[in-house]
């Protein structure tokens, strides 16, 4: 292990030990499965752009990826259709509102503004080039596996739990259709979006996704170029503006790095040209971001002086 990574491993352990005592927040409850995950699980992983891995405590626990899937499908659509098409059809502005806000849509003539809120993510799914729903889904799942360098699988349990409770997202899909911002059959797009949220990753898988973004789109573990280097800044910009929803500004102010959270408790942070940190812990703040995850990543990135600004 390099000297830098030896120091990093020590700092990561300190961050984890400190965060473990934080009892703030609660699991997501609007998706029944997520409410049942043990709240005290805490994992932290780092993958460098050279493929070195550091993993601590529950870094091997498989959790539902949820909203972090949005950055992967964004990458796929950027590859298939290019940055201009995505920008015109979905947008690139922070909403400043919750991830499932209908008001944000209504205020902008039904344009989702960003692929990282639920509306924009479903529109992005609908842009994946495919002949039918199953082919669209297989492409998304395959791309998740390539980015994680791991066989990513759908959890039937999580998917079932989400598909039977996602009426709000189905309503958003229909609103998108009504404003001409849905590019496949709307409820099919909602179904595939719900599946992409219901796959299981551990913190090492997730940090590998981030390390691919940190490494100009080339997965440092498999050596495969998965996203063209020219598309990476678009993904990182979206993450910086909207990755933690209505607290993205606070995250930029405190951490100064692109991040992405999921209500399953995952939190990814990309340190360009260095690597990525992935945290997992199910207790969330009111905005849907892991509390211990934010605490650990803040601690490590401050100690390592990784703030980009
Ligand atoms: O669509 C939803 O509401 C969930 N499947 C994902 C939301 C989510 O992860 C928001 N993130 N922090």
Automatic annotation (TrEMBL):
Which leading EC class covers this enzyme?
Answer: hydrolase
User: Residues that bind substrate, according to the entry?
Assistant: 67, 118, 162, 169, 193, 245, 263
The record's EC number reads 3.5.1.2
Recorded hits in Pfam families, A to Z, give: Glutaminase
**MF terms in GO:** glutaminase activity
Report the record's Gene Ontology biological process terms.
glutamate biosynthetic process; L-glutamine catabolic process
SUPFAM superfamilies linked: beta-lactamase/transpeptidase-like
Record keywords: Acetylation, Hydrolase
Q: According to its UniProt record, which reaction does this protein catalyse?
A: L-glutamine + H2O = L-glutamate + NH4(+)
UniProt subunit comment: Homotetramer.
Report the family membership: Belongs to the glutaminase family.
In its UniProt entry, what is this protein called?
Glutaminase
């Amino acid at each position: 292990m390099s000297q830098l990574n030896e120091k990093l491993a020590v700092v990561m352990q300190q961050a984890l030990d400190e965060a473990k005592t934080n009892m703030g927040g609660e699991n997501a409850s609007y998706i029944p499965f997520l409410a049942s995950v043990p709240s005290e699980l805490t994992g932290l992983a780092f993958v460098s752009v050279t493929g070195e891995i550091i993993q601590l405590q529950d870094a091997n626990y498989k959790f539902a990826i949820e909203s972090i899937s949005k950055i992967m499908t964004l990458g796929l659509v950027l590859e298939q259709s290019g940055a201009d098409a995505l920008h015109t059809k979905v947008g690139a502005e922070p909403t400043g509102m919750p991830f499932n806000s209908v008001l944000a849509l209504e205020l902008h003539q039904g344009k989702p503004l960003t692929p990282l809120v639920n509306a924009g993510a479903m529109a992005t799914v609908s842009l994946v080039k495919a002949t039918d729903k199953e082919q669209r889904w297989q492409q998304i799942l395959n791309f998740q596996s390539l980015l994680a360098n791991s066989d990513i699988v759908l959890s039937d349990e999580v998917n079932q739990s989400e598909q039977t409770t996602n009426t709000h997202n189905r309503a958003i899909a229909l609103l998108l259709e009504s404003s001409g911002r849905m590019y496949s059959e709307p409820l099919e797009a909602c179904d595939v979006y719900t599946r992409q949220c219901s796959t299981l990753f551990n913190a090492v898988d997730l940090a590998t996704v981030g390390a691919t973004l940190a490494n100009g789109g080339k997965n440092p573990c498999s050596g495969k170029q998965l996203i063209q280097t020219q598309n990476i800044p678009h993904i990182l910009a979206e993450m910086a503006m909207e990755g933690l929803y209505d607290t993205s500004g606070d995250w930029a102010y405190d951490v100064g790095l692109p991040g992405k959270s999921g209500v399953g408790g995952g939190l990814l942070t990309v340190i360009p040209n260095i690597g990525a940190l992935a945290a997992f812990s199910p207790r969330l703040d009111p905005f849907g971001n892991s509390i211990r995850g934010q605490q650990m990543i803040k601690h490590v990135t401050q100690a390592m002086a990784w703030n980009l600004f």
